[in-house]
Design a protein that fits this description.
This protein is an all-alpha fold. It has a single domain, classed as Leucine-rich Repeat Variant (Alpha Horseshoe), CATH 1.25.10.10. It is 70% helix and 0% strand.
């Protein structure tokens, strides 16, 4: 990112988030974790949460990844609830998959039900959901992992085996 000072870079990023060009919005999402190292990550989260409602699924996917990378600032900035909505309701499986992965990366208990729900989604989403269970514990998590051992998809079964292995 060659926008000069952190303040200038952040202003350019905020402008890119609202650009009419999908490529610009997606690139803004891609760059958010890098920018967060130079700016206050918490100032990026509201615009990223806004991008989760983008009409382009590739922007939503990149945004979910970025929020997962931001960690605590994303959790405290309201991203968990927005990611739960994407994981539960988005029409595109790739968006649901990315949201579930981000929820797993964030490891916030408020995202657990959405992750557990995703364990019954399409194969790619189920694979990601099983992996997203890694930071969580409890009877529901154990039951979901044991259930995944019987999944039709071998990669779902493998992921569950890997997580259940001592």
């Amino acid at each position: 990112m060659r926008a000069g000072s952190p303040g200038r870079a952040e202003r350019a990023w905020h402008t890119a988030v609202h650009d009419h060009d999908v490529h610009c919005r997606r690139r803004a999402a891609d760059l958010a974790p890098l920018l967060a190292t130079r700016a206050h990550a918490t100032t990026l989260v509201p615009d990223l949460v806004h991008l989760l409602r983008d009409e382009d699924v590739t922007v939503v996917e990149a945004t979910a990844w970025a929020l997962g990378e931001l960690g605590e600032p994303a959790v405290h900035g309201g991203a968990v609830e927005a990611l739960v909505d994407v994981a539960r309701q988005h029409a595109e499986p790739i968006a649901r998959e990315a949201a579930v992965a981000a929820l797993g990366a964030l490891g916030d208990e408020r995202g657990l039900d959405a992750i557990l729900n995703a364990c019954t989604d399409k194969p790619a989403v189920r694979r990601r959901a099983v992996l997203a269970l890694a930071p969580f514990e409890g009877k529901e998590v154990e039951a979901a992992l044991k259930n995944a051992l019987e999944d039709r998809d071998w990669q779902v079964r493998q992921a569950a085996e890997d997580l259940l292995r001592p």
